[in-house]
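thought: fold this chain, then report.
action: predict
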Amino acid sequence: MKSVRSSLRYLLADIIGDEDGEPPFLPDGLPEAATSAVSDGIHLLMEYQGARYAQLYVDRIKRFVRRSNVEPATLCRIAQLLAARMAYEDPIRIAQLKLLELDRRRIAFAHESIDLRRFRLDELIGVLPRALADSLLTGFERVGWLGRRRLTIRFSARSRFSVRRLRMMASLRRWRLQSVRYAEERAWVERWLHMIARALDKQPSAAAAVIETATMIQGQGEDYRHGLGDWHAIINGLVKPTFDGALPISDLAAAIAEARAAAMPDPRQMALKRTIAQIRARALSAAPDSDAAE
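observation:
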């Protein structure tokens, strides 16, 4: 029976991806000053999802390694923010962190805390594979629950039952990369990296400001949705039009800072939209004067 249990344990580890290969190598040409930041990102994502996910992180970093106008400090910041965003905080991740806390507590005898997290219904469904999630989302949308229903989840390791529940939730990691939420995160990360690359090409002085916009999106629930909506408003209203040549903003970094200062926890984005409109109006009104001066 002991050998059978051992075999089943290793089989389960393989199914949920606990043994997912060796960490990827650091990118060729990576500056020594950025080695620590990228290494930390690799180890974080190995813990979060596994070797293949960490390799995706390395591949994304490679886009900026050999660019002549990317300083090591800039590369470090991209690496840090990219790792943090790729390790986004979903219920699976919170369960993982509670289990890690349990392991540390067993060693250090520290007091275990209980996390009470409030989620939107679509966030909870979003951790499921798309085939299953789509049918649930459609059903709940029909009864008017999506966007309105909130559920409080207790994350605790104070009893055997709660630990088993955490392990079951953490095991959903196996399907995370097929989930609705991951598809959304992947699209956001790729767009953020694309905007950084365009900033380096079009207006290098604004690259740092574009990189830092990643800090607008954190956590879960309403804060996450508000941050994501504000980010898209700034990118669509100021950053992309500037890079496309449709909006003549000479100091994009200052424009981003002004817009971010106006962002409030308001789903209607009234103050942010007003500020973006004012920045656009100033830029467009100044354009004829600049042309005339030339």
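thought: worth noting. Residues 1-87 form one domain.
final: tokens above.
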